[in-house]
Amino acid sequence: MTSANPVPAVNRRAAIWVGGTVVLLASLDAYVIVTLLTTMVQDVHVPINRPERITPVVTGFLLGYVAAMPLLGQLSDRLGRRTVLHACLAAFALGSALTAWADSLDLLVAGRVVQGIAGGALLPITMALAGDLWSERRRPLVLGAVGAAQEMGSVLGPLYGAALAGLVGWRGIFWINVPLAVVAMVAVHFSVPSARPGRPGRIDGVGGVLLALGLGLLVYGSYNPAPEESALPSWGVPCLVAGAVVLVAFGIWEKRSRAKLLDLTGVRKRPVFTVLAVSLLSGAALMVTLVDVELVNQTLGNDSTESALVLARFLAALAVAAVIGGVLAHRYGDRWPLTAGMALAAAGYLMISRWPFDAAAAAYGPLPRMDVDLALAGFGLGLVIAPVSSAVLRLVPSGQHGVASAAVVVSRMMGMLLGIAAIGGFGFHRFQSLIIERKLEPPFPLGMKAAEFKRALDAYQLEINRVLHTEYREIFLITAALCLLGAVLAATLNETVKPEISDESTHGAAEVSHRS
Which of 198, 220, 293, 327 has the most Cβ atoms closer than 10 angstroms to its Cβ? Predict the structure, then answer.
């Protein structure tokens, strides 16, 4: 499970630096939409009072990210990391141009889907590259650095979008991606090894189609254009059932296919699926945070810049912990950083679920409560990033590092998709139920003086904010339970994910394998 192709240290560092940079580029683009979404949908004529219509702009990106990633990871095992990185960067440039040029919601969604497919593959391929070039003992440190690049994009993305949009507009941000992608392709050509790390074989196209179709049906079944009527649309249950059936068919196909998207032949499946489950739960928690912190900001009356700064507390702690998690995994193995990370996240979300209505005024002595709780939740999720990747890579052969890395990111992004589905289904429906339960109706100005109407409108907005407060507290409590489940699962991992004793024996084994 170690590198069978020794590469000079300088070249290894250059390759991983370039890989980390393209990961950062894609991550910036994934999270930049947080501060651009409202302006984007207004430009493509989506009414501001129909927020459910903008959901496909987010879910389309995530669906593309998840559905194509296993297949692209398999392609990188067969065709080589450099070849697939070139193709993904070219597609990323195309998707960025399509998004920048979009004059309708359909075209905007299409551009984001292409960006998701291309940008999502950059992270697992770079992680697989780290698995190719570094020994098992040193690998967690490198994976921590790559994970930090991914999370740095999530930290800087919202602020980057807010700052750059003021100079070039939201379309200009996506046009800038085109020359950046071209420069990245040149850097990849001169730094990433051209060797193919895996063995020649077939590509599981049927499995890729089944996975994409199953996930697409689940996403479409969860999309509800009328959340005030029910948690799911009229077509929701049939689509969800059909999606589940297709995913079962995908599982059956994978057992019989010669070219599996995730080939676990000779691999202990229980620890692999346990680690992937932890990755899925951490992804769900991340997406809930990104969305529901906006509800918190609405109850506090924050503008977009203030909202981005509040979220930055969580994301900055997450990025720092991504590096620390790699160091801890390097010294103590993957099991305990995984367990501690999910437990800390559970504690953070439990405290967030108990925030008072005026959360900005709450404090732990001299420390603002919002800062402490968000940082704790983010730090916990960040600790998980490197150990999850290194644990899975350690359990599979080196020729399948691309597939294994893709599985880690797919599981995390599937969690994010499920998080959006839960918010879109349960969250919007719960919001409407609370409004009906409290008999809230907006005031009408007819027959009212201006001052009287303003008082009534302010009172109505206050009650709406109290409804949002109830909703986000309930969702964060559920998130705490999910993270606690992740901690329990991580604690069951056995010694198979502990690091090796020495680098020397690892490198010696790699060199013997190379000579033979």
Answer: 293
**Per-residue CA distances from 417 to 66, 239, 275, 282, 406 (Å):** 9, 15, 18, 12, 16
Count the Cβ atoms, other than its own, within 10 Å of residue 82. 22
What is the per-residue burial (b if ≥16 Cβ within 10 Å, else e) of 273-291?
ebbbbbbbbbbbbbbbbbb
The answer to whether residues 177 and 165 touch, using CB atoms and an 8 Å cutoff, is: no
Q: Which two tokens stand for residue 430?
A: 């719960």
Name every residue whose Cβ is closer than 8 Å to that of residue 309 and which is 6 or more positions away in sequence.
none
Q: 10 Å Cβ neighbour count for 206? A: 15
State phi, psi for 206 to the nearest 5 degrees.
-65, -45
Residue 46, beta-bridge partner list: none
CA dihedral for 193, 319, 472, 54, sign (positive or negative)? negative
Cα torsion angle, 321, 324, 328, 333, sign: positive
For the stretch 379-426, pLDDT in tens is: 999 999 889 888 887 887 765 665 676 678 778 878 887 777 777 667
**Helix, strand or coil, per DSSP, at residue 465:** helix
The amino acid that residue 358 corresponds to is: D
Closest CA to 319 of 388, 406, 383, 413: 383
Report the predicted TM-score, pTM, of the whole model to 2 decimal places: 0.75
DSSP state of 395: T
> Bridge partners of 367?
364
